[in-house]
Structures are given as C-alpha cells and as structure tokens.
Specification:
By secondary structure, this protein is an alpha/beta fold. 39% of the residues lie in helices and 18% in strands. The chain is built from 20 helices and 18 strands. It has helices at residues 18-31, 45-50, 89-92, 110-125, 147-153, 176-181, 202-209, 218-223, 227-230, 234-239, 276-286, 310-322, 335-347, 360-369, 385-391, 402-407, 413-417, 431-445, 448-460, 465-485; strands at 2-6, 36-42, 55-60, 69-75, 82-87, 137-141, 160-165, 173-174, 195-196, 199-201, 212-215, 244-246, 297-304, 326-333, 352-356, 372-375, 395-399, 424-426. The strands form 3 sheets. Strands 3-4-5-2-1-6-7-11-12 form a 9-stranded mixed β-sheet, with helices on both faces. The protein has a 6-stranded parallel β-sheet with strand order 15-14-13-16-17-18, with helices on both faces. The protein has a 3-stranded antiparallel β-sheet with strand order 8-10-9. Helix 5 (147-153) packs across helix 7 (202-209) and helix 12 (310-322) runs parallel beside helix 13. The structure holds adenosine-5'-diphosphate (ADP). Residues 17-18, 21, 301-303, 330-332, 358-360, 363, 382-385 line the site of adenosine-5'-diphosphate (ADP).
C-alpha cells in the first residue's frame, strides 16, 4: 500500500506532545511491514534549522497563498521513512511553538496556516504535485489536518482517508469571518459539514468526512461517544460509531528503554534493577532533594493543564510531605499551575522539586530515577508516560480513564496472586481518591517482595508498535477495499 501520513508534528523534528511520538514511530513500524508510507509535516523554522539532506521535490501554487509553496523531500531521522515538508515561509518559518506565540497564545493566523497545510496535503494526495506518486490512503491526525477528508470528498478518484483523534479537546475552532476569509466553498458552512454551533470547526472536516475514524485507545473510543467526554460532538461520533476504532498507541522502545538509554546516568534492565538506585540518587541531587534511597520518590512529567489533574497533585502535597515522600515535576503550561508548583517547592524544598520547561533528557532521567509515576488525568486519550514508566520500573498511579485504563492493571489481592498487577488506579477525579491510591502504592512500596513483583510485571509489558501498526495496516486494507468495491461508500454523509 501507498500511504500518506499527515501530522502537524513528528519526533525528533518537532514535538509538543504525544502526537509527535506517534508520528515519529508509527510510520517506521508500518514501513517495516513493507508499505510505502510517507510523512508530511509543515516546515517549521526549527525543522529547517536542523534537518539535513533536504531536496526540492515540488513547487505548489495553492489557492489563497501568494507565493508558491515548496515541498521539500527528505527522510525522517532514525529510519528510512520518506518525509515531505510543506515550506511556506510566511506561515511556518517563525520562532517558537508550532501552535502558539512565546506567551502561549494561539498564533492569530492558525486557521490560515493549517488551511495551507491541508491544501498541500490534498495536492500530494491527488497527485497534483508532480511527484509521480499517489497514495491509496491518507492518514490524517488531529484538527490541523481536518480539512483534508472534506477536500478529498470533493475530488474524483481521490484516495481513501482515515482520521485519528489524538485529543478531542483540541478542535481547531474559528469564527465565521475567518471561514469566509479562507475562500473555502460556501457550502461547507453547514451543520452537516464544518459549522459547529456558529463556529468553523476544522476537526469536523475529519469526523464527518473521513472514511474511517480512529482514536488512540479503545476506552477513549467509548468515552468520546458520551456527553462527559464528547464536547457536544458525541451525537456525530455515535452516528459514526460503526466506523470508529480505538487502537492503543505503541511506544518506541529504541528511544524508551532503560537498558540502552544514553540520556540516563546508569543503564539497567529487569536483571540489573539495583542500578535504578544510582539513577534515583542522581535525580535527587539534580532537584536538590535529600539523597536517600528509602524515601519514596514520586514523579510527574506533563503538560501543565487542567486535563492532567495537576491541581489534584497540588492538593495532596501536604499529605506527601507528612508521609516524608518526595515529588519531582517536569512540565510547562498554565502559568497558574506553574506558579502553584513553584510555591509548593519553595515551601517544601526537601520534598518537592520543580523544573518548569521542556527537557527531553531530564524526562528520561526522571523515568529512570523515580519510584512512582503520577497521572491523575481527568481524561487521557492514550497517554504515553505511564507506558514509558512501566518499562523503567517506575510504578504508575493513574486515574482509570482512556488509555490509562487500557494499559495499567490495578493492584488487588487477585492481581497480585495472578501476577498481573502493574500499578494503582482510582476512579473519581478527586484528591481524596488520588490520595487513597497513593496510600496503597506506599503500603506496597514498603513491602519489598510485593513491590519487586509489581515492578517486574510492569517491565515485562510489551507495548511496542508491532501489534498496533498491524491493526492500522488491517484497517487501511479494509477501508481501501471498501472504497474500491463500493464507490458510494465515500458519499454516505451529505451530498
Ligand atoms: P500529551 O500528548 O497529552 O501531552 P502524552 O502522555 O500522550 O500526553 O505524551 C506526552 C509526551 O510529551 C511524552 O513523550 C512526554 O515525555 C513528553 N513531555 C511532556 N511534557 C514534557 C516536558 N516538560 N519535557 C519533556 N518531555 C515532556
């Protein structure tokens, strides 16, 4: 199969969250199954600065863009996956984050920027870029690629499309004036298409018009069909439930493996776990915490936003201090949460260590050095850090939602007995519920034989891409087949 994989970020070129991890590793796994998969992302300044061996693959004249857009060709680092960069300097060659200004506000021209990106993806998808290559299927990811499925539906003999929801909270909503300024077909402003409660919704372009929808865990696929998690899109998603599949994200164990991790002071594996102690010492030193192997060390690596339940962690700080535990946090996001965490660290310097910012090396060091990882997310489409934690022998405490529910097995007498326990789960998004599972974790931490078993079971879990990539390949095959055998299949939504 020929597959065009469209995403607004891909590790290691550019990353703000889990989407980059997936876009950097899933295509490599699919290429490994001998399909021609090519990744397309915007040519942000940071990528142009670091990327090597780029060639000029095509010039595109796109509607609404005064300068021709260049398509640069290269390879995704760390593998052989072909890469296309959409180089439109006025849209992407600027300092900072792909989506926000340096003070965290969305770029005012985001709708225009990602419309240009979608038009470029569409041009490649329909072989209008002069590359002499046409995919059988376009795999779109998140709202930044949402206009591609609706554009494809309007094009005869277009490839099939899949749209993956990595986080339904981010929908790409803009106003009517913005919609009008982009010169998109007027008929798209309709409740059956891109209009959503008087707004222009990028994500609806994917949710309504893609041939198939996926999301990144089976539990999240169920959750987004309910009012609690659906943001008003649950009716549409229920309507499409027969074409919505949850596929759990894999992780890249060449990047996240304590046995080979060059970011951490001392490598270790299941049989040399004693080396984890040295990583713990290093971590305590880095955060200026008292160095003591017996003190339980909790960790958080996260975007600091309401979704992640950081406020619940702040609420249990006094209890953690009372129990003489330590907590290290790496993250950035809401300034209020950043300030509250910094204040907690100033108040309890022997117990709480905070690093505000984005730091890949430190993230690996924390996974290696901590004992327990906290993820009390209000919702979590898949979540990757709990899976990395398993492999690093850092026991996760998680809220039972989305991918957290699908990847962590709660510790109970039964799961200890049958040796399936890998972490601690709780249900209510409340500090008291988080605290009772933290208390359970602490009780088990103090019983070394139980703890060793939970750690060992976690380290044995295999969430590599192989199985999930296979599921995507099967889905691509099915969708292409349905489209070819039932051409009307594509047209079932509106005409
Ligand atoms: P989300 O995509 O919602 O942010 P995920 O758990 O799916 O959450 O993925 C987050 C990814 O971003 C992980 O690879 C995590 O290690 C990384 N990450 C998040 N915050 C930071 C940070 N401050 N420094 C380094 N890595 C981070």
């Amino acid at each position: 199969m020929d597959i065009l994989f469209a995403s607004s970020e891909a590790h290691p070129l550019i990353k703000t969250g889990g989407l980059a991890d997936v876009s950097g590793s899933l295509p490599r796994a699919i290429l490994g199954q001998r399909h021609d998969i090519r990744v397309i992302i915007p040519a942000y300044r940071e990528i142009l600065r670091h990327a090597q061996h780029l060639t000029l693959a095509a010039y595109l004249e796109l509607e609404g863009v005064s300068q021709p857009v260049r398509i640069l060709g290269g390879r995704l680092p760390g593998g052989n996956v072909k890469l296309y960069l959409v180089d439109s300097p006025s849209h992407f060659d600027r300092a900072g984050n792909p989506y926000t200004t340096s003070d965290g506000k969305p770029w005012p021209d985001n709708a225009e920027r990602f419309t240009v990106f979608c038009r470029a993806i569409h041009a490649l998808a329909v072989d209008a870029a002069g590359l002499d290559w046409q995919p059988d299927i376009v795999h779109c990811n998140d709202w930044q690629t949402g206009l591609v499925p609706i554009m494809l539906r309007e094009t005869p003999s277009a490839p099939a499309s899949i749209f993956t929801i990595h986080n339904l909270a981010y929908q790409g909503l803009f106003d009517w004036k913005t919609f009008k300024s982009l010169k998109l077909p007027a008929s798209w402003w309709s409740a059956d298409a891109l209009e959503f409660h008087d707004s222009f919704s990028f994500i609806k372009g994917g949710l309504v018009f893609a041939d198939w929808l996926t999301t990144v865990s089976p539990t999240y696929a169920d959750e987004i069909c309910t009012p609690e998690f659906g943001y008003g899109l649950e009716g549409l998603l229920n309507h499409r439930r027969g074409h919505l599949t949850g596929i759990i994200n894999g992780v890249d164990y060449t990047v996240w493996n304590p046995g080979r991790d060059l970011h951490i002071p001392v490598q270790y594996n299941r049989r040399s776990l004693f080396h984890k102690t040295e990583n713990k010492r290093d971590l305590q030193e880095r955060f200026a915490l008292p160095v003591d192997n017996d003190t339980p060390l909790f960790a958080v690596i996260s975007r600091l936003v309401e979704q992640k339940g950081i406020d619940l962690i702040l609420e249990i700080v006094p209890e953690l201090v009372k129990q003489n535990a330590q907590l290290v946090v790496l993250g950035s996001g809401d300034s209020q949460l950043e300030t509250a965490l910094e204040l907690a660290s100033t108040r309890h310097p022997d117990h709480i260590g905070i690093h505000i910012g984005y730091n890949e090396t430190l993230a690996h060091g924390i996974e290696a050095g901590a004992d327990i990882f906290l993820m009390p997310s209000r919702f979590e489409p898949c979540g990757l850090n709990q899976i990395y934690s398993l492999r690093y022998g850092t026991v996760p405490v998680v809220r039972r939602t989305g991918g957290l529910a699908d990847t962590i097995v709660d510790t109970t007498p039964e799961t200890l007995e049958d040796k399936t326990a890998t972490g601690f789960c709780f249900d209510k998004a409340e500090a008291s519920a988080l605290w009772s599972s933290v208390e359970r974790a602490l009780e088990h931490y103090r019983k070394p034989e139980y703890w060793a078993q939970i750690v060992d079971t976690g380290m044995r879990q295999d969430f590599s891409w192989k199985r999930s990539a296979q599921q995507y390949v099967e889905l691509y095959t099915r969708v292409i087949d349905e489209q070819q055998n039932h051409p009307s299949f594509k047209k079932y939504v509106t005409q």
